[in-house]
Amino acid sequence: MKLHQIIFAGELKLLLRSRTQITALLLFIGLGAFSVYYGHSEIGKQQDRLRSVGDTLEKKKLQYLEAFKADTSTAAGKYAYEAAALPSLARFSYNFLASNPPAALAALSLGQRDLYPYYYILNAQNLYAQTLKGDINNPFKLSAGNFDLAFVFVYLLPLLIIALSFDVLSLEQDQGTLSLLQTSSFPLKKIIAQKIRFRCLLVLLLVLVLSAAAFLACGPGLQLAQSLGWLLVLFAYTGLWFSILYLIISFKMNTSLNAISSIGVWICLLIVVPALINLLVAGGQKQQSSRLAGLMRSRNMPEKEEAMRGALNHFYSYYPALKPADTAKTPFFYFQGYSAFLMTEQLKSKVLVDELYHAVKERNRKVSYFNLVSPAVHTQELLNALSGTDMDRELQFKQAIEKYHRQIFWFSNRALFANRMLTKADYAAEPRFEFKPPTLSAGTLFLGLFQLLGSGICLLLWAGKNFSVAFKEDQ
User: Fold this and answer.
1) Residue 56: CA count within 13 A, CB half-sphere
2) Phi-psi region for residue 439, left (φ > 0), alpha (ψ -120 to 50) or beta?
3) SS3 category, 120
4) With 50 as the cut, is the pLDDT of residue 137 above it?
5) Where are the transmembrane segments (predicted)?
6) What pLDDT does residue 300 have?
7) By the 8 A CB rule, do 382 and 445 touch?
8) Residues 6 or more apart whose Cβ sits within 8 Å of residue 168
9) What's the confidence (pLDDT) of residue 135?
């Protein structure tokens, strides 16, 4: 009978007799199942909210179109018609929806979706007063407040691995059976390796089962490449943690020291190291917050002719084709002045916002330098990217909103600066939001897997060297 068959059969019997390990496994399965439910519940709420908001705005649009048929001989009919036809009114009362719909795997790793709005209701007011709720933080903070499946795998899976593996060798020492194993025809190093392999296969099976259940809950929209990428990342992360435990075991410490060392590594890799890296790369964040605070307030200007003409002249420097030959005041003059003021102020604000987005990208780039010493954050980032909940998608969403808002501004202001009323044709040609979110490239995924697997292999080699030295000394 082969060694792995003997070891696996014995380890399975021991596992079934151990109430502690069975309890740990059942608890992990229960927490994993709840996390799947929680993630899909949160995404379901978001989808319901998007449908509700979309339906409300569509009904509002129909009301505006019906207003062109209103009887203007009545006060109510005249009010409805003017609200739809006057660009000075429609620019701030007629709203548009810009949404970031969840990707197929979003329920498994909520990522940024719980930190930032996934939709905006926009009009021709200043964009940043409508959308900028504060500076965008580095995804380092992740979604630790959400009990999604990614949280279970990144934070709790290592604890399960520790509980199953920390005493693989020290227990034999404590029970006095180590000498018996050393007299076996099989090298002790191989016996310990097979014990670890049994536990690794058991944990990988749990990861596969929980992930498969989550995939089924995602529905038909899930692509095979996404699910395979998810599993590969988790398998690599699991292998890395077993390599860490194998290395700790190789020092042949007693059970207590093994437990303390394992928990200490967990604390360092999941709490201390991410916090330290965050401090290193988050410089200047408070200064950005103070500079951007003013962009979140509504804009006001004096309702005086001089102020309006100044705003219009500034506006025409950007859009000279709109400058009329006749500068005499029209019924829309003051409305044009305020719209011109909003646009020029937004163009000034865009410089600061672009600096913010650039700073976020720079922080992301700097964080990537520490992937080897922060595998938990790296794994979370890969899972977020596969799930479409990472910071790159959030930034792309913001950029798509900026492009869309320019179209929204001109929807009503094109008629306003032409000194004409809006028509049904204008509403029929209203802009529609287009957003093609980025996907995780195969190169980035393979690089992430290479880093996780490479770290695990290096630790295994180190552990193998420790075992060789230790067993020679015992002999």
Assistant:
1) 11
2) beta
3) strand
4) no
5) 21-40, 149-169, 200-222, 228-251, 263-282, 440-462
6) 77
7) yes
8) 192, 195, 196, 199, 245, 249
9) 45
User: Among candidates 49, 143, 152, 28, which has minimal Cα distance to 384?
Assistant: 143
What is the Cα–Cα distance from 286 to 35, expressed in whole angstroms?
34
What one-letter code names the amino acid at 453?
Answer: L
Alpha-helical (H) ranges within 98-223 are: 127-131, 149-151, 157-165, 170-175, 178-182, 188-218
Question: Tokens representing 295?
Answer: 């962009």
> Alpha helix (H) ranges present in 219-300?
224-250, 255-267, 273-281, 285-293
pLDDT band at residue 144 using 50, 70 and 90 as cut-offs: very low
State residue 437's pLDDT score.
Answer: 86
Q: Which of 135, 115, 139 is nearest to 290 (CA)?
A: 135
Question: In 10 A of CB 451, how many CB atoms?
Answer: 19
Neighbours of 357 (CB within 10 A): 16
**Average pLDDT over every residue of 142-170:** 86
The CB density around residue 249, as the number of other CB atoms within 10 Å, is 24
Which tokens go with 236? 């690599």
Contact indicator for 397, 435 with CB cutoff of 8 Å: yes
Tell me which residue of 125, 121, 73, 123 sits closest to 98, measured CA to CA: 121
Which tokens belong to 128? 């940043």
- DSSP SS3 for 86: coil
> How is residue 204 written in tokens?
């990988």
134's enclosing H/E stretch is none
Cβ atoms < 10 Å from Cβ of 329? 13
pTM: 0.90
| Out of 351-355, 377-381, 466-470, least confident range | 466-470
Which 3 state secondary structure label does DSSP give 303? coil
The model's confidence at residue 140, banded by pLDDT at 50, 70 and 90, is very low
Residue 428 above 70 pLDDT?
yes
Instruction: Answer yes or no: is pLDDT of 330 > 90.
Output: no
Summarize the confidence of residues 437-466 as an average pLDDT: 93
Do the beta carbons of residue 427 and residue 65 sit within 8 Å? yes
Amino acid at 28: F
